[in-house]
Amino acid sequence: MSSSDSSQSEPTSTDRLAQDPIPKSHVALVSRLMDERSNSLVFYASQWTDEPEDCVQEALVQLAIQKVLPDSPVAWLYRVVKNRALNRARGQRRRRDREHMARQLRLADQPNHNRSGDGGEAEPGERIDLIDALARLDGEAREVVMLHVEAGMSFAMIGKVLDMSASSAHRRYYLALKKLQRQLNPTPSLNIKDNFDDDQ
Questions:
Q1: Which helix (H) or strand (E) holds 100?
Q2: Does the reported pTM lie above 0.70?
Q3: Using CA atoms, how far apart are residues 13 and 21, in angstroms rounded to an integer?
Q4: pLDDT in tens, the chain (200 residues)
Q5: Measured in whole angstroms, how far is the alpha carbon of residue 136 from the centre of its chain?
Q6: Domains plus CATH for the chain?
Q7: DSSP reduced 3-state for 166
Q8: Is the CB of residue 156 less than 8 Å from the CB of residue 199?
Q9: Number of H helices and number of E strands within the chain?
Q10: Phi, psi torsion values for 90, nearest 5 degrees
């Protein structure tokens, strides 16, 4: 491979954004979604990465440069944000693993190293707030709750994001709320219904 070939790289989203004019319809859509969904998207991405704002910005740029807009831009945007957040999380996890290994090597010849407090469980009487309770849900259940409550999505749209039927999304939401209720103690604000409508 010649040096000129090796020096070339695939154009990034930012490169394509600078090279190709963006249709006004795309600009209007991205601007509207940024206003309506950016906070929700950041919150959604934050369950996987501590750099959620970057994931959202990259996804919005990626949407802007699509030659053909997706049928459901909102669902598409949440899927792309999730994928980018997961990719970042994997990179962050690898860095943390390397840092942890380095710390372990530095401590290896220090006897009686105090490990108390690492990964300890909360005391039974300790208050569990909503964020902690959400974190205890399995990943899919947590996503359904966040998409429905925080993002305001219908179960039909959640089904498109998570590749499941609307009734399956509603069922997972119901079961997740029951689990949250057990953790947080019953409150009148949690109005849990037993029927599973497809497009609530």
A1: helix 73-107
A2: no
A3: 13
A4: 444 444 455 555 555 555 567 888 899 999 999 999 999 999 999 988 888 999 999 999 999 999 899 999 999 999 999 999 998 888 777 666 556 555 544 444 344 444 344 444 444 343 446 677 788 888 888 899 888 887 888 899 999 999 999 999 999 998 988 888 887 765 444 444 444 444 55
A5: 15
A6: 20-105 (no CATH), 129-185 (1.10.10.10)
A7: helix
A8: yes
A9: 9, 0
A10: -65, -40
